[in-house]
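Morning F.,

Quick status update on the modeling queue. The single chain you submitted on Monday has been processed. Sequence for confirmation:
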Amino acid sequence: DRCDIDATTAWYLNDSTDPRDPAISPLLAPDLSTLPPTVILTAGFDPLLDEAKRYAERLRTAGVATEFKCYETTIHAFLSFGILPVAREARAWLAQRVVRYLVVPEKPCF
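Structure tokens below.
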């Protein structure tokens, strides 16, 4: 719930950090158009699901290539439960995106 999110935020930030700073909360940035392709994976029972959806929509509106995937039957941090088939599936999905967006193909040496 919101109280848990607020408590976690307080652990993450120090007293002098403004939680509205776009470096902390990118959803609040006025311009997202210069961001790289973005992959967002969330859970259906994640207290941050609505924010993730709004962020994905803002990225798309700004022209940023965005992939959004929600594992509807899962909870926040479900990727940590490696024994669960859905966690393995989600990690495989993420790994494919890492390869797609971060791995540079080798150039031929000729």
